[in-house]
């Protein structure tokens, strides 16, 4: 058994290593460690479907020393199980760059598991996540963040209401609810804050449980980390009329009772970022 383990470890060292790197909320948030790795691996791949890389995407080649990289689609990563990556690992170390944090997307977790199953070394390099950054820039307390959920558009007449129940449960515990809005880069689907609020209003009208109302306080966030970033704390009835500009958008439904420091922080955030 010990002999077999030594052989497997030796065989693993002869293969390439897979780095799964979070690019952060924009290329300006790439970590120093990520940059060092990207400039030294044999091949670089960019996840082109689980998120949006804000700013000038062409800067990635410049940042990593003018090297070429390949953009991977949903088909490459899911339907074909990342085979392009595994083929490249036979040549040497490989980096997969993903917008945001490295393993927020389930696809990349599966890729990490499969890489280890095949005997490859794996290293995860975290990046700035939309989840942590949204709470940070809003001025709300991270200790009061409840379960995160995603608002999706109705599909074939079916309205999904899970996120409404998440808001209800979090509110009962006086917690904030961070809502990610449906995003499908390949299909060009980018839910806006206006659409998200309208969906919430429609569900409330149908269920009538008093979870959502026009005067419920929330924080609308667009293009977090970009020069066009906008962060607006206000009532839902007012946020629905604000033009938040280009995607991606995020929405935080605040807890029913705010700490006095949170109230003061939201005033500052509104003054600085909601213009």
Summarize the helices and strands and which ones pair or pack.
Elements: H1 2-14, E1 17-22, H2 32-38, E2 43-47, H3 59-63, E3 70-72, H4 74-79, H5 83-89, E4 94-98, H6 106-117, E5 121-125, H7 130-138, E6 149-151, H8 162-172, E7 177-181, E8 183-184, E9 189-190, H9 193-207, E10 217-222, E11 230-235, H10 236-239, E12 249-253, H11 260-273
Parallel strand pairs: 1-4, 1-5, 2-3, 2-4, 6-7
Antiparallel strand pairs: 7-12, 8-9, 10-11, 10-12
Please outline what is shown here.
The chain has 275 residues and is an alpha/beta fold. It folds into two domains: 124 residues, Cobalt-precorrin-4 Transmethylase, domain 1 (3-Layer(aba) Sandwich); 144 residues, Methyltransferase, Cobalt-precorrin-4 Transmethylase, Domain 2, CATH 3.30.950.
Total domain modules: 2
Shape: elongated
CATH architecture of the largest domain: 2-Layer Sandwich
Mean pLDDT over the residues: 90
Please report which band the strand proportion falls in: under 5%, 5-15%, 15-25%, 25-35%, 35-45% or over 45%.
15-25%
Number of strands: 12
Rounded to the nearest angstrom, the distance between the terminal CA atoms is 65 Å
Which residues sit in consecutive blocks of at least 5 with pLDDT less than 50? none
**Helix coverage percent of residues?**
25-40%
CATH topology of the largest domain: Methyltransferase, Cobalt-precorrin-4 Transmethylase, Domain 2
Largest sheet: 5 strands, parallel
Task: Count every helix, treating DSSP H or I runs of 4 or more residues as helices.
Answer: 11
Per CATH, the superfamily of the largest domain is Tetrapyrrole methylase, C-terminal domain
Strand order of the largest sheet: 3-2-4-1-5
Level-1 CATH class name of the largest domain: Alpha Beta
Structural class from helices and strands?
Answer: alpha/beta
Rg result: 21 Å
The H-and-E topology, N to C, reads as HEHEHEHHEHEHEHEEEHEEHEH
């Amino acid at each position: 058994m010990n002999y077999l383990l030594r052989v497997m470890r030796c065989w693993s060292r002869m293969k390439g290593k897979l780095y799964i790197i979070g690019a952060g909320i924009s290329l300006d948030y790439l970590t120093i460690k990520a940059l060092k790795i990207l400039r030294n691996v044999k091949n670089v791949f960019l996840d082109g479907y689980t998120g949006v890389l804000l700013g000038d995407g062409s800067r990635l080649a410049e940042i990593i020393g003018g090297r070429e990289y390949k953009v991977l689609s949903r088909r490459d990563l899911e339907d074909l199980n990342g085979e392009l990556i595994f083929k490249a690992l036979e040549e040497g170390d490989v980096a997969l760059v993903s917008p945001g944090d490295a393993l927020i997307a389930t696809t990349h977790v599966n890729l990490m598991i499969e890489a280890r199953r095949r005997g490859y070394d794996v290293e995860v390099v975290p990046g700035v996540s939309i989840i942590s950054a949204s709470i940070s820039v809003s001025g709300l307390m991270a200790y009061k963040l409840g379960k995160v959920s995603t608002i999706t558009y109705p599909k074939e007449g079916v309205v999904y209401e899970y996120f409404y129940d998440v808001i209800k449960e979090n509110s009962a515990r006086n917690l904030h609810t961070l809502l990610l809005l449906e995003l499908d880069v390949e299909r060009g689907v980018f839910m806006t804050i206006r659409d998200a609020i309208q969906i919430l209003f429609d569900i409330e009208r149908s269920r009538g449980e008093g979870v959502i109302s026009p005067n419920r306080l929330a924080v609308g966030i667009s293009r977090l980390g970009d020069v066009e970033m906008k962060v607006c704390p206000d009532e839902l009835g007012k946020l629905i009329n604000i033009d938040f500009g280009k995607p991606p958008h995020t929405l935080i439904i605040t807890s029913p009772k705010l700490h006095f420091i949170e109230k003061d922080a939201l005033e500052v955030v509104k003054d600085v970022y909601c213009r």
